[in-house]
């Protein structure tokens, strides 16, 4: 990227993606969703596990074996809010569909590549260390996948982002409708409003139990906790208030409030960044953005989307926004959509890139 802008890597789905995020935010918003996360505590053994590398190895070696049937408390949508719904597994699923790239990557990290019969929403860069494994997975759709294609893969389990569990062209089907067909579901807790990094560790722990790869799960949690601690040690001395923007595709800039992105907020807070729009509702105008005066701007990038450099050039040429500190100080960052909206372990890669760009 040019000297004007430093890159992280965050994707913006412009009109279509923003529509999905906006449409789905109503399903994630609601006090019940936050209450659900409060009622479903993170696994204590994962949250309190030692961060020492050797102790992590010992924890992994001492991990339990799953005794089937095993039941986990997960989610379903009821009256516009996520509520608890149990999923019982009589054995480890052998055929799994991941409704996003991020969900597939997480399953690969747990050693489950051979169980994945389909992936969709391949919007970001696949990490080099798992690129070969990822290439083995059938791509059901480069974008979001519908229920027909999902069921056509004959999955025993569908795993992934919560707001894609809907009966829509871009949805895999609701939790209840899939369950009625005999297909188990696992909604990533990270994708439910009210989530934090603790939900990532809980997701990994529960997937480890479902697939009887608890040793892999315990070891990977330790690796991620080490990265979490390293990021916290790099935190900015002052809070960095940022706003997310996107290209409307018609020569204008849109602003995304990220009301339901509590998981992302939890992750960026490690380096003392804060989404200053997270409590804003309704459409945010450019005039409001100027008044709010964010110290940093982030633009999401995704495969097939508008080139962020085009958006940046348009922004820098707009006289209306030149008083914004992020513009004046050239604090505009491009971040990878999959890292942040994959709701998986790649959130650390995204935040690490932001920390690098900020010089932390």
From TrEMBL:
Q: Is the NAD keyword given for this protein?
A: no
Residue span of the signal peptide, if any?
Answer: 1-22
Tell me the protein family, please: Belongs to the bacterial solute-binding protein 8 family.
**Coiled-coil blocks:** none
* Region annotation (Disordered) ranges: 30-63
Fetch the Pfam families from UniProt: Peripla_BP_2
**Does this entry carry the keyword Oxidoreductase?**
no
Keywords in alphabetical order = Signal
Q: Where is the Fe/B12 periplasmic-binding domain?
A: 95-360
**Per its record, how is this protein called by name?**
Fe/B12 periplasmic-binding domain-containing protein
Species name: Paenibacillus oryzae
